[in-house]
Amino acid sequence: MDLQTLIYLFVGASFALYIGIAIWAKAASTKDFYVAGGGVHPVANGMATAADWMSAASFISLAGIVSLLGRDGAAYLMGWTGGYVLLAMLLAPYLRKFGKFTVPDFVGDRYYSDFARTVAVICVIFVSFTYVAGQMRGVGVVFSRFLQVDVNTGVIIGMCIVFFYAVLGGMKGITYTQVAQYCVLIVAFIVPAVFLSLQVTGEFLPQVGLGSPIAFDFDNGVQTIQQGTYLLTALDQTFTDLGFNIPYTEGRAGVWNTFLLCVALMAGTAGLPHVIVRFFTVPKVRDARISAGWALLFISLLYTSVPGVAAFARLNLIKNVQNNDYATWTAECSAEQEAAINAIMADGGDAARMPCAGNWFATWEKGGLIGWMDKNGDGKIQFANGAPFAGKPTFSDQVGASGQRMITNTAIAAPEGQAIENELYVDRDIIVLANPEIARLPNWVIALIAAGGLAAALSTAAGLLLVISASISHDLLGRVIYKDKETGKSKLTDSQELMAARGAAVVAIIVAGYLGINPPGFVAQVVAFAFGLAAASFFPVIINGIFDKRMNREGAIAGMLVGLIFTFGYIILNVFVDKSGAYEMFNIKATGVGTIGMFLHFIVAYVVSRATAPPPQEIQDMVEDIRIPRGAGEAQAH
């Protein structure tokens, strides 16, 4: 069966499964919509949490970051997994004991203030929309290649899919859909990883393959790396030969920025509103901690494979594109050529550099995610250190001498003394998706990774959109705007609040689609910004709310505002206003500034709370009760 048919089959079958589950588990009440009725098994919730959290950044972009940055990319691995330990130990059981539907609900009740609740809703919207922009962009990238449509069209298709199972099903539909999505995405990531490990090193497990010798000779453009050379040694040597100033296994970010990024990602993970709300969906407090443990296990299956996949991808890309003739390599295969390539691959041979074996390159080029500028006019692709041209590729309608799409960007010369001039642009978000094609893996493996990439992006997008809609309908409308001042409860009926939640979700989907079409950066970078915002706004206010009886509403509000405004402002200045670093303080990068925002939040909240009146005695008693994480039954309804 041809590749395109298999992709339609795999993606179509997985979507039919997700939508079928959403219809089967359709929410009948606000409690079903927000927290799945509070009756989800810990193992199922662990899978759903893993799918919710392992976003397009994890599935699509993380291996690309590690592949391109080498050791510097490890900060993302450590931060995102370490955050789950914080979440399981410090937050999950206590928040479940409190038993509210949303993070603004916790903030509003713990800090006895509707203004604090409103500030928390604003923080939710900033964090979630920043995060969801990356997810919708990820959907567009996947559709761009595998359904061969424009990136923007792909985003719109993704919006329609999310609408069906997020707006109709709510948290109940999403929970069981995400169990299925976890199964799809983990199989889709691990199966190609195993194939690649066997192909590159002969080892079955990618975790073992990372530390093993390579199973072939390859020419990196400067010298031939011999079979039996250890994979990481081969990459270090290749990086040195191609002019990359720092070997693959050495970092260039510096200890300071690596530390700040790790802490921001850890605290951001523990403060992500769409992940925290998952711990309100289990029956008991003990189950919240068990769920977090299962989620960490399920997440680690993918994360421990990422370094190996990243290294295989970098090696395969250099091995297969370096000095290959563009015209013959990217041409459409005849039936005879395809049969010859398949026969070689079936016998365990390497056909990835054969004529027409690089047709994948031309397909990604059509989507604008790969670009080749033939600077020396030899018709061959050269890959080395340095940008081939300024910015992302802008294509004209003309075709070059070798049949490539012509790029109008200004060419950038190679650094002085570099042996090879770089001619190739590869979008880092496509590394995982393109990897099976680069390695000429079977078509069903390529189709499987398409389904997995969509599962990863859509599962997180749905969870985020639900959090946004719940924060607007439940917290802003139900608990602030339409609040009964005598009873303190919402004037809205259950059905009215459910309708408002679905309406808010529709608006959120439209805004998310716009951000996906006009993204503020590549997927993992955008997601890192969202984690920084969560670290600066939510993590301190929740920690203080649980462990500091003296923390009052004034301190919480001041801390949230300072943390959010400082972090958001720093990101805007250094990412959108001026990328040269002119506005950086002490060389702190925008991806790690959430750590500084978090410490500012803690300091401001402490100072303000000690300078103002303590919280009422009943609030202090409630905090004492929360700290004994036993005895909670169902999540509280309102």
In short:
This protein has helices at 3-24, 30-35, 42-53, 56-69, 74-98, 103-110, 114-146, 151-167, 170-201, 206-209, 231-241, 255-271, 273-276, 285-303, 306-321, 326-329, 335-346, 359-366, 431-438, 443-481, 494-517, 523-547, 553-577, 593-611, 617-626; strands spanning 218-219, 224-225, 370-372, 395-399, 405-407, 424-426. It has 638 residues and is mainly alpha-helical. Strand 4 and strand 5 (405-407) form a beta hairpin.
Structure report:
With 638 residues, this protein is mainly α. The protein has a single domain (3-315, 443-627), classed as Sodium/glucose cotransporter. The protein is 65% helix and 3% strand. The protein has 25 helices and six strands. The chain has helices at 3-24, 30-35, 42-53, 56-69, 74-98, 103-110, 114-146, 151-167, 170-201, 206-209, 231-241, 255-271, 273-276, 285-303, 306-321, 326-329, 335-346, 359-366, 431-438, 443-481, 494-517, 523-547, 553-577, 593-611, 617-626; strands at residues 218-219, 224-225, 370-372, 395-399, 405-407, 424-426. Strands 1-2 form a two-stranded antiparallel sheet. A two-stranded antiparallel ribbon has the order 3-6. β1 and β2 form a beta hairpin. α6 packs antiparallel against α7 (114-146). 56% of the residues are buried. Residues 31-38 and 632-638 have low confidence and may be disordered.
